[in-house]
Amino acid sequence: MAAAAAMSQLPPEQLKFMQEAAKRQRPEGTKQFQELHYSDSSRLRNLVDDIFADHAALDKRALPIEAGGNTKFLIMGAGMGGILNAIKLVQAGFKQDDIVMVEMGGGVGGTWYWNRYPGLHCDVESYVYLPMLEETGYVPSHKYTSAVEIRNYLVKLVEKFGLGDRIMYRTEVTSLQWDGGKKIWRVDMTTGRGNGGTEKATLSVNADFSILAGGIFPHPHVPKIPGLAGFEGDMFHTSRWDYAISGGSSEDTFSELKGLEGKRVGYVGTGATAIQAVPEVAKFAKELLLFQRTPSQVNYRGQKPTDPKEWSERIAAGLGWQKARMENLAQHLSRNLPEGTVNMVDDEWSRLQAYCAVLGSERFTGLTPDKIPGYLSELQAWDANHNTKARERISNIVTDKSTAERLTPWYPTWCKRPTFSDTYLQTFNKPNVHLVDTDGKGIDAVTSHAIIANGQEYPIDILILSTGYRSPAYGGGDPAARNGIDIIGRNGLKMSEKWTSRGATTLHGVFSHDFPNLFFFAIAQASATANVNHTLEVQTSHIISIISHFSPPSDPRERKVAIEPSAEAEEMWAMRCLSGAAFFSSVSVCTPGYITMEGDAMNHKSQEEMIKAGRGSPWSAGIVPFERMLEGWRADGFDGVITDDA
Fold first, then answer.
1. Who contacts 223 (Cβ-Cβ below 8 Å, separation ≥6)?
2. Cβ–Cβ under 8 Å, residues 390 and 397
3. 486 in helix, strand or coil?
4. Which of 111, 228, 309, 363 is most solvent-facing, going by the fewest CB within 10 Å?
5. 41 C-beta neighbours (distance < 10 Å), count
6. Residue 402 CA, distance from chain mean position
7. Are 596 and 333 in contact, with CB atoms under 8 Å apart?
8. Boundaries of each FAD/NAD(P)-binding domain copy (predicted)?
9. If we measure between CA atoms, which residue out of 176, 166, 78 comes closest to residue 516?
10. Per DSSP, what are the bridge partners of residue 431?
11. Looking at the predicted structure, is the pLDDT value of residue 265 above 90?
């Protein structure tokens, strides 16, 4: 009774938020999903096969390292993070021959290699998203660049810096084990050859330094839906868009999806992928049934070609323009700039006042538990105007009132990655497009030729699964768990055991005591912003600076060095991160999703579990203050790093 009375006193919008979040809470949390790579069903596992690789061409390539060989740097991943690490090593003076990159796919690009669905563009301005534009002089064709252009640009980057023959494709690292006597990592790998890369072989190599750059969304998942594997029509996951089924080409952003003509298409999921892919599917499908658990917030996009005059005179004018532009966007997102500061990017992202709730802000330093209610109220006040306009936009575009209501999101803007489109909402005005809203429950089951939702059967010919990925917070941010690698450090200590017993334990989120010469990317105990490239730039620069300082490329002694943070330094860092954990209490009001680990992030049962979770909090002031702090730390002499020279 008391709880009901308290809820009745809430403002209508907050009450609505709570009611909608409650609909989506499930006791099984993340266990309601299965990762396709590890599914018990061979059909579901096959949905993540590499259908883009040219296996015949790859079989002819010479490997950059043979079994039992040695390399100075082994980088796991040839996506944007891995490429940036390798390039910055070369820029620091290391040789290309000192580097081996290991990549599961058949080409470079990471998320931009795997994701090729129609309509796909970056959602952050390409002038700050594409790395190293200033160094290469490359001019993106549009304000928001297509996936095809991004992938081709990353291929050019690899070739420009002489790294094309330093990559082992179709290869997966399975374990890392530190040899303290030799000061090397033994790296066990599985590599594929032949048709489909199905001829598997295992090999081990040695590396002085290992760098984990496997990305934040490497594992697509699907809900545990009865009957899914038994669907007899064509089926694929959007992370491996199958153009053999849909028609069209992965080399064309707006393909002619002739394979969908005359077909009833069931599309499951309405997250960021759907916002771009659904309008393209709707152009060709005879009937499109879109199954929704939670609607996305869809903001105005404003796509436009790059204007050469604007590029030369305003965007790319002056030394250091890209870094300045990245930081300007990040500071606007974190609300760390005085009102009236020029908005260089000037798009809807840059005007999301409350998105700092998941990025950090200097406006709320020293936040204590007693101040949390006032802090949340202030965030919601910042968000109210934007959220209201976003909801009004739906009713202004979607002509059917019932459909518009079901497309309306009810949660704070920061609870899911906001989306941007000038075509998605308009798609629901087409007569062949039907929204099947499940009121937060998701679909019930799949039969041989239909989807069952809300107790009703919907016959379909093709099933497209747009159901997302495992959360990047999986395993509490443990790099071993996130990358699916067994990592064994000094004295047989497993990284997973260290994380399980203590929570996140790093210095600056990039390396950890008892795991010398191992570096990784993280959000836990580090920082992030909406622009992933900015996050990678900060962390790669920091990692390469540490390596170069303690093991410079010009060192004539060619000595082995074991580099790691001291136990005391990383514990002090964990306490600093824990002291800012209250800032991220903002997610406590969120509807379940990957940010909250489907609600698991709020289900800590004891004080000890809460402290463990709090240790993994990001830097609470935002990424630009985080980078300034790192720069100061390096200038002051890399305090807290210990080495064992030989």
1. 32, 33, 34, 442, 443, 467
2. no
3. strand
4. 309
5. 13
6. 33
7. no
8. 72-296
9. 176
10. none
11. yes
Reported as half-sphere exposure (CB side, CA atoms, 13 A), residue 607 has a value of: 0
Residue 1 has pLDDT above 50, yes or no: no
Name the E strands within 396-528: 419-420, 433-437, 445-446, 450-453, 456-459, 462-465, 486-488, 518-520
pLDDT at residue 3, rounded to an integer? 39
- Which two tokens mark 314? 């305003």
In angstroms, the CA 470 to CA 399 distance is 35
Q: For the chain, what is the largest distance between any 2 Cα atoms, rounded to a whole number of angstroms?
A: 76
Distances (CA, A) of 194 to 46, 108, 205: 17, 19, 22
Query: SS3 for 451?
Result: strand
Whether the model pTM is above 0.85: yes
Q: Determine whether 490 is exposed, middle or buried from the number of CB atoms within 10 Å of its CB (0-12, 13-18, 19+).
A: middle
Q: Which residues pair with 305 in a beta bridge?
A: 142
Q: What is the pLDDT of residue 602?
A: 67
CB atoms near residue 507 (< 10 Å): 24
- Per DSSP bridges, beta strands 33-35 and 221-223 are antiparallel
Strands 298-299 and 419-420: parallel
SS3 455: coil
How confident is the model over 353-363, as pLDDT tens digits?
Answer: 999 999 999 98
What would the two tokens of residue 79 be?
Answer: 């996506």
- Output the 3-class SS for 9-66: CCCHHHHHHHHHHHHHCCCCHHHHEEEHHHCCCHHHHHHHCCCCCCHHHHHCCCCCCC
Q: Which fold has domain 55-218+471-580+617-645?
A: FAD/NAD(P)-binding domain (3.50.50)
H helices of 484-622, in order, are 495-502, 532-550, 567-579, 607-615
- DSSP string computed for 626-637: HHHHHHHHHHTT
User: Which uninterrupted H or E stretch holds 642?
Assistant: strand 641-645
Q: How far apart are CA 82 and CA 103, in angstroms?
A: 9
The one-letter amino acid code at 142 reads: H
Terminal alpha carbon distance of the chain: 69
Q: Which two tokens stand for residue 595?
A: 């940010």
Q: Which residues contact 416 (CB under 8 A, 6 or more apart)?
A: 271, 294, 296, 297, 409, 590, 591, 593, 595
Cα gap 565→489, rounded to integer Å: 13
DSSP secondary structure, 146-215, as one string: BHHHHHHHHHHHHHHTT-TTSEE-SEEEEEEEEETTTTEEEEEEEEEESGGG-EEEEEEEEEEEEEE---
Kind of pairing between the strands at 171-179 and 184-193: antiparallel
Digit-coded pLDDT (tens) for 556-571? 556 789 999 999 999 9
Phi-psi region of 194 (alpha: psi -120 to 50; beta: other; left: phi over 0): left
Q: Are 280 and 475 in contact (CB under 8 A)?
A: no
User: Residue 246: which H helix or E strand, with range?
Assistant: helix 243-246
Domain extent listing, the chain: 55-218+471-580+617-645
Closest CA to 316 of 88, 86, 542, 125: 125
Q: Which residue has the tokens 């959602």?
A: 123
